[in-house]
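Structure first, sequence second, as always.
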């Protein structure tokens, strides 16, 4: 398998992949792109390190077979910004952009000022986004018991359950977050799944095999990225995800497949990278995950599940179309 050479150009679409596969054979949707993160505009930890390369990021993704992206939001103001970015004609000419609208468990402190006010604002954002096709999911919402330093358990539970009726009202799938939740997340989904006509996807899955199988039994899709396969246990979980419920994502700029991960040995496609302080147009930034790395997620998961990248891409495309019908063109 030939990876991208050091002089990779964003619009080069015929890089040979394993077993004679070419990028033109593959169509992918990155269902986890944090589009509003300032890293994609050259800003890191509040400091501008280089010019924005946002459009080049979209071009690179398209060259690697990424034809669409589901752009996530984590709080109300970000949801407004994300919908605006997803309505930009120049960006959509490169990749089809759609988005979620919701409150992440780590941002559920928003609910401290009153549940009704937050839901009313989210309702307005979602309603407008549904009317023009921009918003296709409610979320990112859920629970995260690993990071109580951001938001405590009580507000997380309030915020998560308060958003579920919005998915029912608009017949939208949920974009779900679940981290080490002691069974609370699974319990809430079991109690409410009959009220959620469009189902949902548990993105960036990193929990146990047993919980994954229970979530899958509810018809929930499972999103896989670099964090999902950063351990041998995670690899075993990904091997067991039902074919018809598997989705792929980057969760960029986070969750890359790192050299220290056991899944890294399954990655073949490489990109030229530079440190952010030495930015060069056409190069990726070291340690900044991008949607173009979907090709690496595809390679790794294909090896883990013992299928070809093309077969896996086709299966995941079918799954993604089923949950998010407008994320792919015909």
């Amino acid at each position: 398998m030939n990876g991208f050479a050091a002089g990779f150009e964003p619009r080069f679409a015929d890089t040979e992949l394993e077993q004679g596969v070419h990028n033109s054979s593959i169509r992918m949707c990155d269902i986890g792109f944090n589009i509003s993160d300032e890293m994609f505009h050259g800003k890191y930890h509040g400091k501008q390190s280089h010019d924005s390369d946002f459009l080049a990021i979209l071009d690179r993704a398209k060259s690697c077979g990424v034809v669409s992206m589901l752009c996530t939001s984590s709080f109300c103001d970000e949801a407004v910004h994300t919908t605006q970015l997803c309505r930009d004609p120049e960006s959509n000419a490169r990749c089809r952009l759609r988005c979620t609208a919701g409150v992440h468990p780590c941002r559920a402190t928003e609910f401290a000022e009153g549940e009704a006010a937050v839901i009313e604002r989210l309702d307005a954002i979602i309603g407008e986004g549904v009317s023009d096709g921009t918003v296709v999911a409610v979320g990112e919402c859920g629970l995260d018991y690993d990071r109580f330093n951001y938001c405590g358990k009580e507000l997380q539970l309030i915020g998560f359950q308060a958003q579920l009726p919005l998915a029912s009202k608009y017949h939208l799938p949920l974009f779900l977050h679940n981290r080490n939740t002691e069974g609370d997340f699974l319990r809430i989904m079991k109690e409410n799944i009959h009220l959620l006509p469009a189902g949902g996807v548990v993105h960036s899955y990193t929990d146990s095999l047993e919980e994954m199988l229970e979530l899958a039994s509810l018809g929930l899709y499972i999103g896989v990225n670099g964090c999902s396969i950063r351990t041998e246990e995670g690899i075993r979980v990904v091997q067991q995800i039902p074919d018809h419920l598997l989705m792929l994502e980057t969760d960029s700029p986070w969750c890359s497949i790192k050299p220290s991960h056991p899944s890294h040995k399954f990655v073949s496609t490489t990109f030229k990278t530079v440190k952010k302080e030495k930015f060069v147009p056409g190069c990726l930034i070291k340690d900044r995950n991008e949607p173009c790395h979907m090709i690496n997620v595809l390679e790794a998961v294909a090896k883990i599940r013992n299928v070809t990248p093309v077969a896996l891409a086709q299966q995941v495309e079918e799954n993604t179309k089923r949950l998010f019908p407008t994320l792919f063109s015909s």
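Margin note: The longest strand covers residues 135-144.
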